[in-house]
Design goal:
Blueprint (H helix, E strand, L loop, with lengths): L1 H7 L18 H6 L4 H29 L10 H36 L7 H9 L1 H10 L18 H4 L2 H30 L12 H33 L12 H35 L6 H14 L15 H29 L8 H23 L2 H7 L3 H31 L5 H27 L14 H29 L36 H10 L9
């Protein structure tokens, strides 16, 4: 990472910031005591990628076992540990830290702030992550192995499990604490440190989505902490919150967990919406269609996300009236989401589009995320969901939302901002290859799972009926090919850090007009120590179509 980041901040081409580039500090000081938002963003992004590879290897172990019927490689208990930790690591270790890393890197640049509001808390929020990851990985080696009750940690399985479950609970506390601190930082930065002239309704949409995501996290991370603390006391102090034998209720855990868990889905989706809303206007070379409606749609999604948790629980025996309530509200979320998809398409409509890698990943995101949204709409229908509950149809649905959704948007963001981070241009041909490879093999992996689920194959099982063999074999081959493609992505990123295909200009994308493109590439260690001028801000706002109301 040293070479990576020393390349990220070469003193060349920094002009007015050259004076501040004389920060010759040791490796330990630079990274362990990091308070600069760019360094902390880089730490987050590398950590998230490491966790993505770790969780990915677990996914490949799962798919290897499921290549054909019968037990090939793993005992059922270890298989359950793999499915559980794959989920926990991908959600809490890969996707959420990656978005926090992007927010750290880009938000101050985009809103004209010199840094994040609380620099030392920012450092602390990152350094809680590696110990949490270590706890999760160590849990494989303790007596009884890792947590094996699925990433949702439902009792009674999670009450009966060995000490791997305690390690997982402790890890979740650390990850939640990290998220809350990162979120407080984002909220404070966005509300208090915007450049003069940038009102809330003139802020880049990525700023809005990160702000709302941060509010969601502050609201629901303590709920998860409460749920896992009750699990812990049930396990060790006989409190009987969730133990039916002592008058507790296992379904209570599901209510608390999903009250966290459904907003969590949008914590992973909203930043993706923000990224795509920056990239599509850039490569369509026209302002984002319906900016204000996008902001209101984002707020609506966030508010509705608190009212639909019960759709994860249609099979627990809740009253029909309650099922109807959750069913209709869940369908209602499709409205603001539909507004977003419409606006992205309207932005592209009759634009002067070019198809660089970030744009390809963004369009791939819109197409596949919409498929994931439609399968979600199907699962929202209570009687249908009762049939599909815990089948591979659900697995297909949320991987379309989280892999083709969150992950594709992260790839898009990486290619889009890589020139600003490193000062070099990535290899466009390799980027496009990475897109098409990922797009094809993603669909080969996850599309057949819809059919498996419709045919009744349950999820989280290491062995299955002969009738499911062909689609499972197809999914396993797809998964290994998809995984291989991500090594190619890593190669492309490292190649770019080391010089890529040449120096990047301050503004490598013709249609880009947000503030981050006003600073040199690579972004100097310190930016916006003097806030950007009102003229500079207004020039960008006019280009984004956000200032015409002042000049009628």
């Amino acid at each position: 990472m040293t070479t990576a980041h020393d390349a990220l901040h070469t003193p060349a081409a920094h002009g007015h910031d050259a004076a501040h580039e004389e920060h010759h500090v040791s490796f330990i000081q630079r990274w362990f005591y990091a308070t600069n938002h760019k360094d902390i963003g880089t730490l987050y992004l590398w950590f998230a990628f490491t966790m993505f590879i770790t969780g990915g290897i677990m996914a490949l172990c799962i798919r290897a076992e499921l290549f054909q019927p019968g037990l090939q490689f793993w005992q059922p208990d270890f298989f359950n540990q793999l499915t559980t930790l794959h989920g926990v690591i991908m959600v809490f270790g890969a996707i959420m830290p990656a978005f926090t890393g992007l927010a750290n890197w880009m938000l101050p640049l985009m809103i004209g702030a010199p840094d994040m509001a609380f620099a030392r808390m920012n450092n602390w929020s990152f350094w809680l992550l590696p110990p949490a990851a270590a706890l999760l990985l160590i849990s494989f080696f303790v007596p009884g192995g890792a947590a094996a009750g699925g990433w949702t940690l439902y009792p009674p399985l999670s009450i009966q499990a060995g000490m791997g479950m305690d390690l997982a609970i402790f890890a979740i506390h650390l990850l939640g604490l990290s998220s809350i601190m990162g979120s407080i930082n984002i909220v404070t930065t966005v509300l208090n440190m915007r450049a003069p002239g940038m009102t809330m309704l003139k802020m880049p949409l990525f700023g809005w989505t990160m702000l709302i995501t941060a509010y969601l996290l502050i609201a629901v991370a303590p709920v998860l902490a409460g749920a896992v603390t009750m699990l812990l006391t049930d396990r060790h102090f006989d409190t009987h919150f969730f133990k039916a034998v002592g008058g507790g209720d296992p379904v209570l855990f599901q209510h608390i967990f999903w009250f966290f868990g459904h907003p969590e889905v949008y914590i992973m989706a909203l930043p993706a919406f923000g990224i795509v809303s920056q990239i599509i206007p850039t490569f369509a070379r026209k302002p984002l269609f319906g900016y204000v409606s996008m902001v209101y749609a984002t707020c609506s999604i966030a508010i509705l996300s608190f009212m639909v948790w019960g759709h994860h629980m249609f099979a627990v025996g809740m009253p029909a009236s309650t099922q109807l309530f959750f069913m209709f509200l869940t369908m209602l979320i499709a409205v603001p989401t539909g507004v977003k998809v419409f606006n992205w398409i309207a932005t592209m409509w009759q634009g002067s589009m070019t198809f660089e890698t970030p744009m390809l990943f963004s369009i791939g995101f819109v197409c596949l995320f919409t498929i994931g949204g439609f399968s979600g709409l199907i699962l929202a229908i209570a009687p249908v969901d009762t049939q599909m509950q815990d089948t591979y149809y659900v697995v297909a649905h949320f991987h379309y939302v989280l892999v083709a959704g969150a992950l594709f948007s992260l790839f898009a963001a990486t290619y889009y901002w890589l020139p600003k981070w490193t000062g070099f241009m990535y290899h466009e041909g390799r980027g496009k290859f990475h897109f098409w490879w990922s797009m094809i093999w993603f669909n080969v992996t996850f599309f057949p799972m819809h059919f498996l689920g419709l045919a009744g194959m349950p999820r989280r099982i290491p062995d299955y009926n002969m009738q499911f063999t062909d689609f499972n074999a197809m999914a396993s081959v797809g998964a290994f090919c998809f995984g291989l493609g991500q090594i190619f992505f890593l190669f492309n990123v490292i190649h770019t850090i080391r010089g890529g295909v040449g120096k990047a200009p301050a503004k490598p994308w013709e249609g880009a007009n947000t503030l981050e493109w006003e600073v040199p590439s690579p972004a100097p260690h310190h930016t916006w120590e003097t806030p950007p001028s009102l003229e500079m801000v207004e020039k960008g706002l006019k280009a984004q179509g956000l200032l015409e109301d002042h000049h009628e």
